[in-house]
Design goal:
The protein contains 6 helices and 12 strands. By secondary structure, the protein is an alpha/beta fold. It has one domain: P-loop containing nucleotide triphosphate hydrolases (Rossmann fold, 3-Layer(aba) Sandwich), CATH 3.40.50.300. The strands form 3 sheets. An 8-stranded mixed beta sheet has the order 6-4-7-8-3-9-10-11. Strands 1-2 form a two-stranded antiparallel ribbon. The radius of gyration is 19 Å and the shape is globular.
């Protein structure tokens, strides 16, 4: 019977095991695939240099419609141009996406799929498993009828679904959910400012822990949000 040496490719080394995306080593980061944010300083602050290419990312805010969606505009525009064409699924958004602002940012409307449902967790999992989506954006909050354990179980299923599908999912959640545990790979608190916002990593596999103040003008593809008068155009949520 042959012997397997430590250097044999058939036996994974400890270092190779630690590189697996399902293993979290505290402040140190395993090598995982990432997607550029469109903002160099934000890329530098995030573990791996961008958004997780497969996994849950939670963006927590005091309320919806504070400009947090602008964080994902460059990614929506980039993925929207990829071939073969796939959907960007919007699950239970609190407002109607504002088409003129999306078009101005280079986001193809024909690839946006808005899903209205009373069971967003189910819809998120189905879109991730469908093979037809390049990215999922979802508004996910605890309901009066769901226990903490039920909610955590749903989030774990979604995290596994993102890993199977290799599709990123971004969950927009209320700030009061920050105190609850989550299997998400990345959790970010967003607070708006006059010309941008402040970001703080609440949970990450590495990355910058200090608050990061960013300006929308730093985004490579967000300059088209500016009107001819130099004033910001309407946000991508139509709140009227």
């Amino acid at each position: 019977m042959g012997q397997v040496t430590p250097d044999s490719p058939s036996e994974p080394t400890l270092e190779r095991l630690l590189e697996h995306p399902a293993i979290w080593r505290g402040r140190s980061a395993a090598r995982t695939a990432t997607l550029g944010t469109g903002c160099r300083r934000l890329d530098d602050a995030l573990p791996g240099g961008g958004w997780p290419a497969a996994g849950l990312t939670e963006i927590l805010t005091a309320r919806s419609g504070l400009g947090e969606l602008r964080l994902l505009i460059p990614l929506l525009a980039t993925l929207g141009c990829e071939l073969p064409a796939r959907w960007a699924a919007w699950i239970s958004p609190p407002f109607e996406p504002y088409a003129p602002a999306l078009i101005a940012a280079g986001v193809p409307l024909e690839r946006q799929l808005v899903v209205r449902t009373t069971d967003p967790a189910w819809a998120i999992e189905q879109t991730l498993n469908s093979g037809g989506c390049a990215i999922v954006l979802a508004w996910f909050a605890a309901t009066a009828h769901s226990s903490k354990s039920t909610q955590l179980s749903a989030l774990r299923r979604l995290q596994l679904a993102t890993q199977r599908s290799q599709v990123p999912a971004f969950l927009f959640r209320p700030l009061d959910e920050a105190a609850q545990s989550s299997p998400a790979e990345l959790r970010i608190f967003f607070e708006p400012s006059l010309e941008g916002g402040r970001l703080k990593l609440l949970k990450s596999r590495g990355g910058e822990r200090r608050p990061l103040d960013i300006l929308w003008s730093e985004w490579r593809k967000l300059n088209r949000y500016e009107s001819k008068q130099g004033k910001p155009a309407r946000d991508i949520h139509d709140q009227t």
